[in-house]
Amino acid sequence: MKHTKRIISVLLATLLMISILPLSAFAASENTPKEEVVYINLNADGSVKEINVVNIFDLDENGQIIDYGKYESLRNMTTTDKIGYSGETVTIDAKAGKLYYEGKLDNNVMPWNIVIRYYMDGKEHSASEIAGKSGNLKITMKITDNEKCIGNFFEGYALQATVMLDTKRCSNIVADGATVANVGSDKQLTYTILPNKGADIEITANVSNFEMSAIAINGIKLNLAIEIDDAEIQSKIDEIIGAVNDLDTGAGELNDGAKELYDGTSTLNEKVGELYTGVGALNSGVGDLSSGLTEITSKNKELLDGAYAAFEGLCSASETILNAELTKNGLQTVTLTPETYATVLTDLLKTMDADSVYTMAYDKALAEVTAQVNANADAIYAGYVEQNADAIYLTYVQSQADTLYAQIAAQAVLEQLVANGYTQEQATAYLQTAEGQALIAQAVSAMTEEQKQQIITTAVANLTEEQKAQIKAGAVESLTDEQKEQIKNGYIEQMMKSNEVTDQITSAVSAANSAAASVAELKGQLDNYSLFYEGLKDYTSAVSSAASGANTLKLNMDTLYANVGTLKTSVGDLNDGVKELFDGTTELKNGTGEFVTETDGIETEVSSEIDSMISSATGSDVEITSFVSDKNTNVKSVQFVIQTEAIEIAETVEAEPVIEEKLNFWQKLLSLFGLY
Fold first, then answer.
1. CA-CA distance, 576 to 261, in Å (whole number)?
2. Closest Cα partner for 650 from 214, 216, 215, 209?
3. Model confidence over 76-111: pLDDT tens digits?
4. CA 333 distance to own-chain centroid
5. CB–CB of 252/589 below 8 Å?
6. The dihedral of CA 494, 497, 501, 505: what is its sign?
7. Secondary structure of 106-130 in the HEC alphabet?
8. Which of 155, 130, 279 is nearest to 212 (CA)?
């Protein structure tokens, strides 16, 4: 990463040296708008080694940049112009366009406390001690809020930590909570830490001759487009509140009706008592007939109740068996009663036709495949870029072609000038003159297309694995939403045509056909019992009618007395039950009234709670502020690039004597790219 940044900085400086533009009058402005990129170098244990900030300005016209910060040192990364620094104020006279300057901060306080520990076979080691060891490795990384750091970065910025482990040295890697990807022979472990959240990370592996690349941590202002249909939620809440009010009104009306009913049953109970007393005076000599008729009619009820209970049991058992099959096939369960089973099963059979089941199975498979693809979207994008890596490398290098030609030509001319007697400083100064630029342009113009192609080809071939990884990562990041959607849709379409998915859909249709036959058979069995039950009701009705007809002539006051006695008891029970109903409705009315009071204003509370939850999860309510100085009040963005030291085995390399060969101009030019 550092090597690539140095290349980019040199290319930018070279371009600016080549472009000699006239300067117009500088206009000063206070607090120039800018972006900050904070580069934090950590020791292997997570402690801060140094903090450098690259400040980025994009001027619409020539003018003076005014910035603030406490720096130990400053470096103009764009031009050779001097940087003014007094107290905490930085001033730069700059031309229109981009300008970068780097400053090393005078303190090493960052927004996060990061503590990294290394263990081998249960024993803790320092980074230098653990390099080259073999055994059971454990790495822990704890990230917490650094209260010593002023600013809102912990509350408003998300972190992405990346750990690279070489699979040639590491196996059986366990990293809970990480997104794992293969990058060449490395396992890339990526952790995302949301704003206002810390992290406790643990990684274990079996290692041999252990080494590890630097741990990279990026911090950005999280910007998630989370939309909540607040209007729909509020509408539902309004419906609930309306229903609660209706419930309270209904409970009041029910309570009033129960009061009237209780008054009526109390009067009825009193009058039935008077009737029972009068009929008792006439009761004589017909006990046997009355007993016989009572026994017959009581048996009818027991018989019907038993038959209905058996019908309910049959429906319940059928419901249990049927729901088990429906659940196994992903269908909605049903409820069967003697009154509803026919309608329920008929409707169920309608939903189990081949077309409906196929559509349901297809939609279910599509949802599962889509969820799987979305869950692995980043890996799919990375795989797509990996397939087209060679073309991406070539495109990237070709975009830098003019700069490469000029850089190579400038180096060759510089060496030729030194060979002709110029000092290094004189030659460098001469190249900045019009004559020097003309020599560079002449050298570039003299290059053949074959030589230029060799330069491009060599540059591509000399890309390091780290540079390739960065180019591919940039290609993934540059994918548009439309391109990402096309990649995912293509993958989804491919998976939906797979044998596994089509077999799953076919199996579901087959199972539904079998289930439909079972449901039809079950309905037939319940229909048969329903016919039996209806016949039994007709039978008991006929028996009651016959008994009534047979006893019509024998009915007397004893029968009347018994019936009135039963009526008296029933009315007493009814009166007691209505009293309980009245007490219950009174209690219900009190409860609904309290419910109405408690739900008053709930729509405002729900809306506030939704806003609070979204703000806490995304850090969206956190304002962008300068990391360098609170005097910088016009900062567009702040980004953190954090990196630890790599863990490497120390090597001692003895330098071999180099015999210099005197080369001509073109030999020197070709040797820069390894072509000579």
1. 12
2. 209
3. 999 998 999 999 999 999 999 999 999 999 999 999
4. 31
5. yes
6. positive
7. CCCCCCEEEEEEEEECCEEECHHHH
8. 130
User: Beta-carbon neighbour count of residue 93 at 10 Å?
Assistant: 16
What tokens were used for 278?
Answer: 């009068």
Distance CA 249, CA 671 (A): 94
Residue among 109, 113, 111, 92 at smallest CA distance from 101? 92
Q: At residue 409, does pLDDT exceed 70?
A: yes
User: Which pair of tokens denotes residue 148?
Assistant: 């010593």
| DSSP letters spanning 415-458 | HHHHHTT--HHHHHHHHTSHHHHHHHHHHHHH--HHHHHHHHHH
Nearest to 156 by CA among 660, 624, 632, 666: 624
- Give the Cα separation of 38 and 641 in Å (integer): 6
Cα distances from 125 to residues 44, 83, 117, 639, in angstroms, run 11, 44, 8, 32
DSSP letters for 539-570: HHHHHHHHHHHHHTTT--HHHHHHHHHHHHHH
Q: Say how far apart CA 520 and CA 511 lie, in whole Å.
A: 14
Could you tell me where the DSSP H helices lie in 283-353? 287-328, 341-351
Q: Locate 311 and state its tokens.
A: 């019908």
280 vs 564: CA distance, rounded Å: 9
Contact 140/116 with Cβ under 8 angstroms?
A: yes
Between the CA atoms of 628, 633, 636 and 640, what dihedral angle is there, to the nearest 10 degrees?
Answer: 20
At 549, which amino acid appears? G
Across the strands, what pairs with 312? none
- Closest to 20 in 3D by CA, of 414, 425, 441: 441
Residue with tokens 């003309």: 438
309 vs 338: CA distance, rounded Å: 10
Whole-angstrom distance, CA of residue 218 vs CA of residue 181? 18
Residue type for position 35: E
Are the C-beta atoms of residues 157 and 221 closer than 8 Å to each other?
yes
Number of H helices, E strands in the chain: 19, 17
CA 284, 289, 291: angle at the middle one, nearest 5?
Answer: 95
Long-range pairs, 294-302, Cβ under 8 A, ≥24: 294/562, 296/543, 296/544, 296/547, 297/544, 297/547, 300/540, 300/543, 300/544
Which of 665, 660, 672 has the alpha carbon at shortest distance from 420?
A: 665
Structure tokens at 227: 């939309």
What CA–CA distance (Å, rounded) separates 276 from 281?
A: 9
Q: C-alpha angle with apex 384: 378 to 388, nearest 5 degrees?
A: 140
- Enumerate the H helices of 71-223 as residue ranges: 127-130, 153-156
In this structure, the number of other CB atoms found within 10 A of the CB of residue 436 comes to 19
pLDDT tens digits for 176-200? 999 999 999 999 999 999 999 999 9
Q: How confident is the model at residue 658 (pLDDT cuts 50, 70, 90)?
A: low
